[in-house]
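WARN no homologs supplied; continuing
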Amino acid sequence: MEQPQPVLVETVDLTKVYGDGEQVYALNKVNLRITAGELVAVMGPSGSGKSTLLNLLGALDTPTSGKVLVRGEDLAALRDKDRFRAKTVGFVFQLHNLIPTLTARENVEVPMMGYYSAAQRRARALELLAMVGLADRANHLPAQLSGGQRQRVAIARALANDPLIVLADEPTGNLDSQASLDLMRLIAELNRLKGTTFVVVTHDFAVARQTRRVLTMADGRIVREDLIGSPLEEDLKMWRYSGLGQRIYEGKLEELQMLGIKPKQQRAIRKLLELAEQP
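OK structure emitted
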């Protein structure tokens, strides 16, 4: 019997409020658990709190109230947050944030400064670039790389210090659909091979379905949680929550009637959509 993985990250009533006058709740009492080795997507409309959540999980910001616990340790009690970020968390952003005057290898080496010797940094950077499929691009500057290649360098950099968790904020946001799919396949493969925990913020369901669990946010709260199943199950879910799917699910079958679909067939379609609601 497979043993359950330990909880790596937990939030307790995590709240972030902005504004001195009219307060805006970027996060409102968010409670979640992420176990070691998970691959999780966070979805939601702009302003729903996705990036704020990632910033708090990575100790880039502090909560107004509530807690972020990493392996049971409250981040508020950390004395050296810079070291925590350097050794425990890897970051990947929508804009890769590579240093334009450094080669791919040198960019990957940057987080290792002060922790490894020059020879160790070089060897580790080359190993990671090979892992993300860029062994032959180690000496290229960012401007000489495609968007997808730059994000692969960013992932290699995020893994430089062998972090427990990688937080990726819209990593495919500036990529075309094929490059996005390739990048997510890489993340999924790294998650499987290395056991590194990934939390990926995205607005793209095609990206989210490459993960294993999807958290949907709205108005600073987690309003839905889905485990990713087979491609057929995920297609059903996507159709179920489309405008037409919702109307059919609610018994508003006029659209199907207009298409000449018989009542027996309408009931079968509705029954199929109901499967998307089952855990």
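The chain has two domains: 7-228, 230-279.
OK
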